[in-house]
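Dear H.,

Thanks for agreeing to be a second pair of eyes. The structure we're designing against is below in token form, covering all 394 positions.
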């Protein structure tokens, strides 16, 4: 390869291939959501379905049956080449070189100072072929950072970095009925691929005649799959999944349910729990940083120092002992003094009490510690608990 990076064409404002427009971008599935009566919201610069009817019903469907999500706003960045593994080991905090083909890894891209630029899922599709999946609002930044880091180790890595976000749709089927729904749509000879797929793995399969990359990850705390498909096949695939899943209780679900589900599962959200002002160490995710890698990686020195020094504040779960929920930005108190801040919080539909994720001073982070959340001048009792709040029965 003669060029260290490949520049893709500018992404259209509409992932379906429409001409650029004012306002938030739209996925290829936007017309389908409108047909279904979705309420929309701007999320990461995308016009995304917030809910289709009752967000509580959508939440419960995922816990009890299945939900269908459009997550095409996520970014897909392909990294290919003889030095793809070495490059990603330099650019990201995880050890991507030891991944087996067909596996996935949760990792992060950080600043030299250790601050989190984004959390990512990386799939190894071949010995020299990786797919990096970034959060919606951060995808252009992650792409730019990766391109810049191609030459950041002194000599340019022999890789191509290509942004495939504008041509790729992503549909998630989440819930205990997800596997059964997919089994009814794949050829008999691929059934074992679905049933045998481990958590954080991916493979190419044919779903209702459409070839997709099928991944078993998820952001809800339930079993489930993500289907990566070219934009021109997204609408037919969505309609087929919705129809096939209806007898099992599958319904479309929006961002409101996705947020309450991930909070119950103790999964961090970029912009709330994860920011450029926090490190993986602060967020309790130091285990995803591979300090055993022999070569240097961006942010290594800062993260080693943070690990050695320890963190002044830790990310914890708080269980509400009353009925009112803490919200993002609310102060956390100990004996009336502020000792932390809420990053995410709402009533838990599944558990029946308020749940909160918050950064609190390290001395108050042990499970069982009694704290208050200042709800607009009215302190309400909470207790530190281990995350996740909810864990599915396997």
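And this is the sequence the design step returned. I haven't edited it by hand at all.
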């Amino acid at each position: 390869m003669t060029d260290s990076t490949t520049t893709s064409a500018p992404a259209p404002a509409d992932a379906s291939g429409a001409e650029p427009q004012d306002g938030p971008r739209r996925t290829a599935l936007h017309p389908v959501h409108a047909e279904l009566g979705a309420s929309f919201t701007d999320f990461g610069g995308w016009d995304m379905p917030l809910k289709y009817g009752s967000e509580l019903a959508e939440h419960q469907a995922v816990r009890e049956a299945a939900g269908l999500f459009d997550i095409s706003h996520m970014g897909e960045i392909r990294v290919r080449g003889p030095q793809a593994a070495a490059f990603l080991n330099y650019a990201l905090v995880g050890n991507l070189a030891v991944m087996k083909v067909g596996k996935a890894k949760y990792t992060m891209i950080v600043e030299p100072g250790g601050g989190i630029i984004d959390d990512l899922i990386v799939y190894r599709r071949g010995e020299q072929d990786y797919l990096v999946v970034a959060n919606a609002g951060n995808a252009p930044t992650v792409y730019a950072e990766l391109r810049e880091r191609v030459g950041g180790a002194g000599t340019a890595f022999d890789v191509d970095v290509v942004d495939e976000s504008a041509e790729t749709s992503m549909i998630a089927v989440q819930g205990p009925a997800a596997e059964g729904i997919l089994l009814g749509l794949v050829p008999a000879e691929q059934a074992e691929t679905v049933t045998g797929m481990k958590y954080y793995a991916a493979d190419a399969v044919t779903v209702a005649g459409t070839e997709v990359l099928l991944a078993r990850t998820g952001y809800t705390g339930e079993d489930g799959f993500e289907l990566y498909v070219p934009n021109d096949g997204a609408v037919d695939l969505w309609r087929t999944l919705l129809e096939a899943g209806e007898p099992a209780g599958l319904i479309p679900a929006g961002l409101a349910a996705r947020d309450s589900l991930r909070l119950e599962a103790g999964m961090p959200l970029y912009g709330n729990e994860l920011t450029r002002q926090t490190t993986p160490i602060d967020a309790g995710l130091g285990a995803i940083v591979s300090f055993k890698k022999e070569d240097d990686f961006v942010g290594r020195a800062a993260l080693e120092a943070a690990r050695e020094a320890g963190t002044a504040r830790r990310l914890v779960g708080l269980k509400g002992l009353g009925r009112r929920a803490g919200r993002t930005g609310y102060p956390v108190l100990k004996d009336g003094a502020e000792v932390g801040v809420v990053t995410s919080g709402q009533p838990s539909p599944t558990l029946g009490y308020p749940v909160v994720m918050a950064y609190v001073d390290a001395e108050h982070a042990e499970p069982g510690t009694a704290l208050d959340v200042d709800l607009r001048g009215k302190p309400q009792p909470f207790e530190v608990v281990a995350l996740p709040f909810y864990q599915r029965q396997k």
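Two observations from my side: The first helix runs from residue 30 to 35. Residues 1-20 have pLDDT under 50 and may be disordered.

Warmly,
E.
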